Amino acid sequence: MDPRTPCLIGIAQRTIREQPGPEPLDLWEETARAAAEDARLPVERLDSIQIVHTDSWQYDSPVGRLAERLGATPRHRAYSKVSGTAPQLLIGEAAARIAAGDLDSALVTGAEALATRRAYRRAGEHVPWSHPAVPKPPYGWERPPHPYALAHGLFMPVHTYAIMETARRAASGLTIAEEMRDRGRLMAPMTEVAAANPYAWRRTVRTPDELAKGDRFVGWPYTRDTVAVLEVDQAAAVILASSRLADRLGVPAEGRVYLRGWAYGEDTWEVAARPELGSSQAIAHVAAAAFRRSGLGLGAMHALDLYSCFAVALRQACDAIGLDPLDRRGLTVTGGLPYAGGPASDYVLHSTATMAGLLRAQSGHGLVSGVGMHLTKHTYAVWSSEPGGRLGSAAPVFVAEEVPLVGAWAGEGVVAGYTVAHGRDGVAERGVLVVEVPGGRAYAVVEEAGLLADAESRELVGQVVRVSSDGKVNVAAW
Predict the structure, then answer these.
(1) Residue 418, beta-bridge partner list
(2) What is the pLDDT of residue 32?
(3) What is the Cα–Cα distance from 330 to 192, expressed in whole angstroms?
(4) pLDDT tens, 110-144?
(5) Looking at residue 355, what is its pLDDT?
């Protein structure tokens, strides 16, 4: 084996339930030291320190502050943008640099303390954390929300994903009740995995009937207990090294996990621009490339972790790669984002660390996927207890073509997908539609209470609607 072959040799996870908890910098340091101890690597020896963007706090120099804490002087430093695919992109970058001989070791870490922020907010106190960025930099979007979407109040994932869910439901021929029951069957096994995961945020087993019924709607048809839980205090870290360094550190063969192959690709950045609103074109290409590079197929995987921020993300993945949603291997090794926890951009570090621990314990191969933005960005990675394959890169293997977007529109259109936004009191506040119109698709809002109730009582996809506009906001009625 090439002595530059990268392998994952250190893992660490942490979940803090006592509130208020530590700040992200503390969590980065704690998990970095734990992962380094697991890897038998002195932290000051790290060649690279990479951090996943944190939503909890904006530091003046995130990597610099962590390096200072660790007493390290890394030759390579990186701080990611906002995205659920960021951990895999950082891991892929580290692996490529190690394979090229540019680095011998790399730390990738991430942490969120959103539950602690909430605790301070509820107590009416300011967050007393260190080294704030002054002035505060712009939010770390790769692209800001589209002006058409913003004009219609559409930027929260709980609403964009729900629109795609209704489009898929209609295309699948499911009724509203059938989709909710199917969602309960899909996600109940995840709660069982979470219950056995000591790092999971929610560790209560739920039945399919309980999840189908739900507690309250957030972005209809999604209920609060079937979507990612963001307000968590969680951190994770992994350390990669060359096989040569792993040998020198005395890391045994069973302590090494290999990235056999991975790939990245994109669907459209705007929900309304997707060629098929309820399905993904990119996932099949990305997964196929990852499997091809790894020299392994889906059937060879011993364990799977598919990104699960919302049910439609799981469903589109299963549709695209030909996987039974009730496959005996399960869809997650952590419990998924609704139950293990969905720490903003950081989840894939947790799923990767958990998968690595599993492969150390029982050997074999595992698949870990990531999703970014509004089901736009996709990563698929094959991990293994056996070296082989070829890494791949962050160059997209597929980029979807966009359906044209129409801004102001007045006239008739046909609903392609929709959601109803609910407030914290559970009351329906407004609807948001994606409407097929001549020349492309447009957004529209629904304001009348009676129409919102109607939209939740029957299938609205395919409904002809009348759209009026003030030049900025389109309003639909029927």
Answers:
(1) 433
(2) 98
(3) 10
(4) 999 999 999 999 999 999 999 999 998 888 888 88
(5) 98
End-to-end CA distance of the chain: 66
Spell out the residues 6+ positions from residue 90 whose beta carbon is closer than 8 angstroms to its own: 50, 52, 78, 80, 108
Q: Would you place residue 42 in the very low, low, confident or very high pLDDT band (cuts 50, 70, 90)?
A: very high
Query: Could you tell me if 452 and 463 are in contact, meaning their C-beta atoms sit under 8 angstroms apart?
Result: no
Order of all β-strands in the sheet with 6-15: 6-15, 233-242, 105-113, 48-51, 76-79
Alpha carbon of 303 to those of 99, 107, 339, 446: distances in Å? Answer: 26, 24, 18, 43
Contact between 167 and 277 (Cβ < 8 Å): yes
Integer Cα distance of 477 and 461 in angstroms: 14
- pLDDT over 80 (residue 1): no
Q: Report cis status (omega within 30 of 0) of the bond before 343.
A: no
Average pLDDT for residues 158-181, to the nearest whole number? 97
Cα separation, 300 vs 219, whole angstroms:
37
Q: For a pLDDT cut of 90, what percent of the chain falls above it?
A: 96
Q: What is the pTM assigned to this prediction?
A: 0.97
Q: pLDDT at residue 412 above 80?
A: yes
Q: Which residue has the tokens 């107590």?
A: 123
- SS3 readout for the chain: CCCCCEEEEEEEEEECCCCCCCCHHHHHHHHHHHHHHHHCCCHHHCCEEEECCCCCCCECCHHHHHHHHHCCCCCEEEECCCCCCHHHHHHHHHHHHHHCCCCCEEEEEEEEEHHHHHHHHHCCCCCCCCCECCCCCCCCCCCCCCHHHHHCCCCCHHHHHHHHHHHHHHHHCCCHHHHHHHHHHHHHHHHHHHHCCCCCCCCCCCCHHHHHHCCCEEEECEEHHHCCCCCCEEEEEEEEEEHHHHHHHCCCHHHCEEEEEEEEEECCCCHHHCCCCCCCCHHHHHHHHHHHHHCCCHHHCCEEECCCCCHHHHHHHHHHHCCCCCCCCCCCCCCCCCCCCCCHHHHHHHHHHHHHHHHHHHCCEEEEEEEECCCCEEEEEEEECCCCCCCCCCCCCCECCCCCECCCCCEEEEEEEEEEEECCCCCEEEEEEEEEECCEEEEEEECCHHHHHHHHHCCCCCCEEEEEECCCCEEEEC
Neighbours of 165 (CB within 10 A): 27
User: Tell me: the pLDDT tens digits for 324-382?
Assistant: 999 999 999 999 999 999 999 999 999 999 999 999 999 999 999 999 999 999 999 99
What is the CA 424 to chain-centroid distance, rounded? 23
